[in-house]
Specification:
This protein is mainly α. α1 runs antiparallel to α2. 67% of the residues lie in helices and 0% in strands. It contains 2 helices and no strands. The longest helix is centred in the N-terminal third of the chain and has 29 residues.
Length: 86
């Protein structure tokens, strides 16, 4: 099965999966701010939070890599060319 066709079954499935994974990552980001503001519960909460965030990051990375194999490379904007960041 190919994911090339726009609106095909696998394409829609991938879009839905990615949307769910990004929503989970956003929720974990918000939860992280809550956990960090309550320092008395850090040891247990941080352990669980880090495990959940690592899983979400793994899932989002998997989607990004998969899309990278299907999306043709583009030239970076002129202001970003050669800029590796800080």
């Amino acid at each position: 099965m190919s994911t090339e066709s726009s609106g095909g079954y696998l394409s829609r499935l991938a879009e839905n999966t990615e949307a769910q994974q990004l929503a989970v990552a956003a929720e974990l980001g918000e939860h992280a701010l809550e956990v960090l503001s309550d320092w008395q519960n850090w040891p247990d909460e941080l352990r669980l939070l880090v495990a959940d965030m690592a899983g979400a990051l793994r899932d989002v990375r998997r989607v990004a890599i998969s899309r990278g194999h299907r999306i043709p490379p583009t030239d970076p904007p002129a202001d970003e060319a050669g800029d590796e960041g800080p």
